Amino acid sequence: MSRAHRQAELVDLIQLEVDHLLGEPAAAPLAPDAGFIELGMTSVMVVELVHRLEHGLNQPLPQTVALEYPNVERLADHLLDARFSSQADSNGESRPEGDKNTPGRQARLVDEVAHLDDQDVLRWLRHDQDEATRR
């Protein structure tokens, strides 16, 4: 399966989960570059998106991944790259460097994100997008 096909499947999966969390299917497909917060998701909904993706992909994810990659397109790109780089895990090898996805860390991150108000999350995402643009 080509990378483009895998990318399209991930975009579809993420869009379906976002639609579900927003409570109704969108009349038109979501713009893949529209931010999750811009689409009307709260910070708690973003955390729930990560949980749903973990289940759908059968793979643990950092709880802040949807905040670090705050739209469908960027999140799908990241998940695709992470999936390829972590295939060594399935062969019994160690996880990629920097993956500190432990249950204790996950709980702390969920607690931190759940206590942010939507404006704080939006400011953080804008700052992150500004930083990414400068790179």
Proportion of residues in helical segments: 55-70%
Number of separate structural domains:
1
Written as H for each helix and E for each strand, in order along the chain, the element string is: HHHHHHH
Structural class: mainly alpha
The parts where pLDDT drops under 50 for at least 5 residues are 88-100
Q: What would you say the CATH architecture is?
A: Orthogonal Bundle
What separation lies between the terminal Cα atoms? 31 Å
* CATH C-level name: Mainly Alpha
Fold-level CATH name: Non-ribosomal Peptide Synthetase Peptidyl Carrier Protein, Chain A
Q: What shape does the CA trace take?
A: globular
CATH-level-4 superfamily name = ACP-like
- Give the averaged pLDDT, no decimals: 75
The total of beta strands comes to 0
Put simply, the count of helices is 7
Q: How large a portion of the residues is in β-strands, by DSSP E? A: under 5%
Mind summarizing the main beta sheet? none
Radius of gyration: 15 Å
Verbal overview:
It is globular and about 40 Å long. It has 7 helices and no strands. The N and C termini lie far apart (31 Å). The longest helix is centred in the first third of the chain and has 20 residues.
